[in-house]
Design a protein that fits this description.
With about 270 residues, the protein is α/β, with parallel strands linked by helices. It folds into 2 domains: about 5-95 and about 210-265, Rossmann fold (3-Layer(aba) Sandwich); about 95-210, Rossmann fold (3-Layer(aba) Sandwich). It has helices at about 15-25, 45-60, 75, 80-85, 95-105, 120-125, 125-135, 145-150, 160-175, 195-200, 210-225, 240-255, and strands at about 5-10, 30-35, 70, 90-95, 110-115, 140-145, 180-185, 205-210, 235-240, 260-265. Strands 4-3-1-2-9-10 form a 6-stranded parallel sheet, with helices on both faces. It binds D-glutamic acid (DGL). D-glutamic acid binds near residues 74, 75 and 188.
């Protein structure tokens, strides 16, 4: 057993989709979460800036003695995560690989839809991973840049009119393409899964990238005998208002956010 905490980060609230799954499957793990809410969204930024932010986020998490980093951010996972893995002497996992593996297992008609931030879609990382595993699959993709700001502003209810209008415009072409599986390639998107499901139709399997990565991480920990069964403490850090984060996080996690939320200063500038 390794009692050191797991570190999880995202640009904001999205990584909570991974935390929710971790809490379910690894209830004894201590988790340290960092949401870079002062600099969200990452998805419209250059690769250099995304890498710089990701390095700073990991450096903050590593100021604690953590055993594993989960980059619960599709944008970071698709923009240079290999370099970041090489720079760290503890395991670092992103969300793209796990999401793709889950999607190719789920599809029946080999038509997979992908939604993500502009930087994730531009990177071509999901496309390459799908091609590697299943060259017979067709990928239909769409960048959805307005979803992250909507989620961060708490516009997550299924009957939210603004969210609905935006989602209709983004998703209609993917629905019309007849995809039976959709990768939610940004970890913010499962927070609005009800709206997405309503537009795509019940028959479409939605792949939650953060949850898929959390499950693969649990397998890694099991293989190395590192699962902690005696903890369960969760601490949250953000780079902007702690109150705003807590409010939306509670709407999403449902049961209420257990553990403290603290604001910290992240930028090395
Ligand atoms: N949750 C992040 C992702 O998975 C959002 C990125 C952003 O801040 O634009 O891509």
């Amino acid at each position: 057993m390794d009692k050191r905490p797991i570190g999880v980060f995202d640009s904001g609230l999205g990584g909570l989709t991974a935390v929710r799954e971790l809490m379910r499957i690894l209830p004894g793990e201590d988790i340290i979460y960092f949401g870079d809410t002062g600099r969200v969204p990452y998805g419209g930024r250059s690769r250099e800036t995304i890498m710089k932010y990701a390095r700073e986020d990991i450096a903050f998490l590593r100021s604690f003695d953590i055993k594993y980093v989960l980059a619960a951010c599709g944008t970071v996972s698709t923009n240079g995560l290999g370099e970041i893995k090489a720079e760290n002497n503890i395991p670092v996992r992103g969300v793209a690989g796990a999401a793709v593996r889950a999607a190719v297992r789920a599809t029946r008609n080999n038509r997979i839809a992908l939604i993500g931030t502009a930087a994730s879609i531009r990177s071509g990382t999901y496309d390459r991973k799908i091609l590697d595993l299943r060259p017979d699959c067709e990928l239909y993709k769409k960048a959805c840049p307005l979803f992250v700001p909507l989620v961060e502003n708490g516009r997550i209810e299924k009957d939210d009119q603004v969210l609905r209008l935006v989602a209709e415009e983004y998703l209609a072409p993917l629905r019309d393409a007849g995809c039976d599986t959709m990768i939610l390639g940004c970890t913010h998107y499962p927070i609005i899964a009800d709206t997405i499901r309503d537009i795509m139709g019940e028959g479409v399997t939605l792949i939650d990238a953060g949850a898929a990565a959390a499950r693969e991480m649990a397998e890694d920990l099991a293989e190395t005998g590192s699962i902690n069964t005696e903890g369960g403490e969760h601490r949250y850090f953000v780079s902007d208002s702690a109150d705003g984060f807590r409010e939306t996080a509670e709407m999403f996690l449902g049961s209420g956010l257990k553990g403290e939320v603290r604001r910290i200063s992240i930028s090395g500038e």
